[in-house]
Amino acid sequence: xxxxxxxxxxxxxxxxxxxxxxxxxxxxxxxxxxxxxxxxxxxxxxxxxxxxxxxxxxxxxxxxxxxxxxxxxxxxxxxxxxxxxxxxxxxxxxxxxxxxxxxxxxxxxxxxxxxxxxxxxxxxxxxxxxxxxxxxxxxxxxxxxxxxxxxxxxxxxxxxxxxxxxxxxxxxxxxxxxxxxxxxxxxxxxxxxxxxxxxxxxxxxxxxxxxxxxxxxxxxxxxxxxxxxxxxxxxxxxxxxxxxxxxxxxxxxxxxxxxxxxxxxxxxxxxxxxxxxxxxxxxxxxxxxxxxxxxxxxxxxxxxxxxxxxxxxxxxxxxxxxxxxxxxxxxxxxxxxxxxxxxxxxxxxxxxxxxxxxxxxxxxxxxxxxxxxxxxxxxxxxxxxxxxxxxxxxxxxxxxxxxxxxxxxxxxxxxxxxxxxxxxxxxxxxxxxxxxxxxxxxxxxxxxxxxxxxxxxxxxxxxxxxxxxxxxxxxxxxxxxxxxxxxxxxxxxxxxxxxxxxxxxxxxxxxxxxxxxxxxxxxxxxxxxxxxxxxxxxxxxxxxxxxxxxxxxxxxxxxxxxxxxxxxxxxxxxxxxx
Length: 578
Ligand code: ATP
Ligand code: MG
Description:
By secondary structure, the protein is of the alpha+beta class. It is built from 14 helices and 31 strands.
């Protein structure tokens, strides 16, 4: 490919709405073009990268025994009603009507469709196990599309679904997929951590995420991990040994009484006013889960993890209640308290979930739904209703102890590039997707599902491999392997060497761009760094000594060598990734 012909426009500036490195660089280097929030055109350079990621995924899925198919992107409501998800999926599901007024949706994921495909075709235990996958655009009307390809609304995903006769079969396939995922991300030049995670709206019991660990802002997940053993988990799933309340030995409130606590809206204000550690305060927080209020109780030195709370409440959507919603709840229960003075007493009919930290508390302080007042010297029997739900809803903190080996946990940011779920019979049961066993009895298939964000993986590679000048594509997923830059295209000798190298590399199967533009060398070097070609061959004055210069983008190393050496080294490098 000649640079003069390549359909790419690099920009002087980063896109104005770009917050993270991959969005900035992919926009400026002409890889993506925004059409609408979270919706992008993949320009030719990007498409080459995406196809390479897809091919690695395809090769490894095929090697692991899965078979590729392609399901429709537009899906009818009826199947989503069978699984029960039409009602509960929420607004990420993009719903539309066809000309006959039939409800449809754009596929955000394909459990319903694949389960219907399976039940029509997999009738006997003799046909199982099967693992089917596709690579396709998905649409999710994300509440906050951002970070370019990392969180788009339309994005490319590989989704695979396995069907087994029993749990043991699923366990085996789950492990098989975990191994395939390790190979996939390794081949893409990405270091990943496989961490335990919450199973979310897709459901099931066991799941893991593959995280690219990053110190950039793009890491939307907090990953807790142990440096002593291999425990690691997304914060929405992480657990630690219950931290003991540090109380300084003083006996604060041996008598139960109601005290005036004027203007103590926050935990800090309340503990300063009463001169007590926050571990003596029972914090009551109001959330809205699936449109209904839920009260979360936790020891006040700890924070609530919303996904854990949502799961404990059995919901699929959660947010903290607004001041107006709290006021409404108070009115409904006959109270007038402002936020900061809420408590569990008198909240009959409202779901109350108490964190494990609450159960060790004694003679503590708690809100009683009266502004400027708290009950002190309270104990559990005074405040917890009979139908309280006890659950771990606590956000783990760095330094708390590992649940396996009791060493302090560390925390880091991660980008989730893939995940694997054990679904069990979550879809096969309600959708009556069954096989017949050797005795003629029917059973629902035991299913797993396995996703990889193809476009997110490509963007994560930019987060992991770049410097201030641009992208440093890993060789296996780079849009082209090499750019050849003649310093002066008017110089016939330079052009002869450049053209000869171009032909020879191209013929050897190397993907090469010849920068034949009549631009200053500095401009061409800048573009080469920005676009992130793994190798840059500069053909300049040193050809009189029979040498050209090779720049290795990953390390920015410059090496002078003969065109023959360039040829051999690059061909070897390219062959080694295949
Ligand atoms: P997240 O927690 O980041 O929203 P998810 O749990 O919704 O991800 P899945 O439904 O399991 O993700 O989708 C499988 C894979 O698809 C994810 O691991 C991720 O790599 C990718 N993915 C999910 N949502 C997006 C998105 N909005 N943009 C780009 N890739 C995405
Ligand atoms: Mg999501």
